[in-house]
Design a protein that fits this description.
Elements lengths: L2 H31 L4 H45 L10 H4 L4 E9 L11 E8 L2 E9 L4 E8 L1 H27 L1 H7 L2 H12 L16 H53 L3 H32 L8 E4 H15 L4 E7 L3 E4 L1 H18 L5 E9 L2 E8 L20 H5 L8 H11 L3 E7 L3 E9 L12 H7 L5
Parallel strand pairs: 6-8
Antiparallel strand pairs: 1-4, 2-3, 3-4, 5-7, 8-9, 9-11, 10-11
Length: 483
């Protein structure tokens, strides 16, 4: 055979294999796309389960009938073994007491051992004279062999009728189950249909639809409740995100409008007027700095929401950070009085820069809300396993209505909105995130007219596996104001 011929044969075989694979692939594809309704599949499943239980029931009934027949045979055998036979080797009906049994005494001795459970030996089943017969041998009191034949016609007929009745009952149940699958769909599987219909109506502008759980029971009710809870969380998260974007856009719009206004003023007549030029440049620089701070705060929150906020954990004395912040605040705001008390050394594991940022945020808020010439007290206290930092002011305080909202993003109280340096309403949110990332707690106590005190409670030791990536849901649930 030439090489060309062998190549052709290999090519033909390869083509045949690919054809077979293609046919199998198409068959699998068709079978995968052949979808039965859920109710029909459930009906088939439970029909098969009923068939399996029917088979098991037939086996149990068969064993029960066989045990009953053998027990009756053994009872008759006890009477026959001790009774005397006639001259022809037969036993009278007075001895047997059962018309379905025939017994004959054979002249040869019974030599085989009997079963420990049965005092006779079953030879087997035989069909003759239009009936099913059970043949067994036993030992007569004379030592001879007794051959017994039991007619199983009526027990067999009873067994057949019972088996047939059980099978017919299951078949009727299966047929009823399959024929009434639409009723099953309406009564039992209606929550699944409601879930499907409700899911098709969900959109970004319509997240308020929920599954109706009235009339549902057991697992389907649990499924509907879980899905409704999931939709509640999605709606809250989406609304929070939408509010966040709206607030961020609003906060960015103001400095951009101010900058654009001063630029237009400078372009018209500010170039030749040094006083207007200086005013415009100063205002633009101030608004640019404000916008820079806002953008940095937004980036911090975005890193936190994406769980990419990393902390550089190291051991340091928190009193050094507070003392440094105390000196800086006294230089920046000389008109206010800053007091460092109590001041104790406390070693903690954490990100030094982040802890300083928290304290700076709290000090800036205290300066904003404290009247000129007021007193701001910064403290460091140590307890076993914990370190507590505090910032106290003698400002107007926070009302009970505003206290639960002060950690929300972009929230500013009425007094903050009226003040010139009210900020963007992100400081306390950032401070809470940092404290929570260190495994600590941020608490506040305030009384209207008596000032406010913020407490930062931090653990001395950090978990080595702590990644400082705190989810938004955890921060929202654990960072509420403690008042």
């Amino acid at each position: 055979m030439s090489k060309k011929t062998r190549r052709q044969l290999r090519a033909e075989r390869k083509a045949q294999k690919e054809k077979v694979r293609g046919i199998r692939g198409r068959i699998k594809y068709l079978l995968s796309n052949f979808r039965l309704s859920l109710t029909f599949r459930i009906a088939l499943h439970y029909s098969w389960q009923m068939l399996r239980t029917t088979l098991l029931a037939l086996i149990i009934l068969t064993v029960f009938f066989a045990g009953t027949v053998l027990a009756d045979l053994e009872s008759d055998m006890r009477r026959i073994r001790i009774a005397d036979a006639a001259q022809d080797g037969t036993f009278s009906q007075l001895v047997i007491q059962d018309e379905a049994i025939e017994a004959t005494l054979w002249p040869w001795p019974y030599s085989d051992e009997t079963s420990p459970l049965l005092q006779y030996r079953v030879n087997g089943l035989d069909f003759h004279s239009g009936s099913l017969w059970l043949t067994a041998d036993a030992c007569h009191h004379t030592g001879q062999t007794i051959r017994i034949e039991a007619n199983l016609y009526w027990p067999f007929i009873s067994w057949c009728w019972l088996m047939l009745g059980a099978v017919l009952c299951d078949l009727l149940r299966m047929v009823f189950f399959l024929r009434n699958r639409e009723r099953l769909n309406k009564s039992v599987l209606s929550p699944i249909r409601d879930i499907t219909e409700m899911a098709t109506t969900l959109s970004a502008n319509n997240l308020s639809n929920r599954i109706n759980i009235a009339g549902t029971k057991n697992e389907l009710r649990d499924l509907a409740v879980v899905i409704n809870s999931m939709l509640d969380r999605i709606e809250r998260s989406y609304n929070s995100q939408k509010q966040f974007v709206s607030d961020a856009s609003h906060e960015l719009r103001t400095p951009i409008a101010v900058i654009q206004g001063y630029i237009n003023m400078l372009q018209r007549w500010g170039k030749s007027d040094p006083e207007i030029l200086d005013e415009g440049i100063s205002a633009i620089a101030q608004e640019t700095e404000s916008m820079k701070d806002l953008v940095e705060s937004l980036l911090f929150l975005a890193r936190h929401d994406k769980k990419t906020l990393m902390m550089e954990m190291a051991q340091f004395d928190v009193l050094d950070v507070v003392s440094e912040l105390h000196r800086e605040a006294a230089m920046v705001t000389p008109e206010d009085t800053f007091v460092l008390s109590p001041a104790v050394n406390c070693l903690i594991e954490g990100d030094r820069g982040m802890i300083k940022q928290v304290m700076r945020i709290l000090c800036d808020n205290a300066v904003k809300y404290t009247p000129r010439g007021g007193t701001i007290t910064i403290g460091v206290e140590h307890e076993p396993g914990w370190c507590t930092l505090s910032v106290t002011d003698n400002g107007p305080g926070i009302s009970s209505e505003e206290l639960p909202k002060i950690f929300d993003r972009f929230y500013r109280s009425d007094s903050a909105r009226k003040s010139e340096g009210g900020g963007h309403g992100l400081g306390l949110s950032i401070a809470r995130i940092i404290v929570m990332a260190h495994g600590g707690k941020l608490r506040v106590r305030s009384k209207v007219g008596s000032g406010s005190t913020f407490y930062v409670v931090l653990p001395e030791k950090q978990d080595r596996l702590h990644t400082a990536k705190l989810s938004t849901a955890e921060a929202a649930s654990a960072g509420k104001a403690d008042h």
